Amino acid sequence: QVQLVESGGGLVQPGGSLTLACAASGFNFPIYTMSWYRLDPVKPRELIAFIGGVTGDIEYADSVKGRFTISRDNAKNVVYLEMNNLKPEDTAVYYCNNGAVWGQGTQVIVSS
To answer: What is the mean pLDDT of residues 76-82?
Structure first.
């Protein structure tokens, strides 16, 4: 069974940092491109970063470029999203995706 489980969300003050993790199982993780999305009630779902499986290519949305870093550990089947200099507008539920399956999401709230 293909499964993605996100963790690491929480409440953080503006300017703070969080690192999200997405644990994958049930598929050949190393060859899959893994993506992080976020969703809040006001804005459309946003693709914020992805990392290629075979190529390792990385891309970021302009809204997070320079602040967020995506990485993966193929030995552990985990993809990470390191988030620095967080802003209130980063508040959202963050999801990982392998192109077909979604995790349950992890809530990030940036507030003072």
So the answer is: 98
Is the alpha carbon torsion for 55, 60, 66, 68 positive or negative? negative
| Measured distance CA(89)–CA(18) in Å, rounded | 15
β-strands 46-51, 34-39 pairing: antiparallel
Ordered strands of the 106-110 beta sheet = 10-12, 106-110, 92-97, 34-39, 46-51, 58-60
Q: Check whether 37 has a pLDDT greater than 90.
A: yes
Beta bridge partners of 18: 83
- Number of Cβ within 10 Å of residue 33's Cβ equals 18
3-state secondary structure (DSSP) of residue 74: coil
Query: Does the pLDDT value for residue 41 go beyond 90?
Result: no
**pLDDT over 90 (residue 62):** yes
Sign of CA dihedral 72, 55, 17, 22: negative
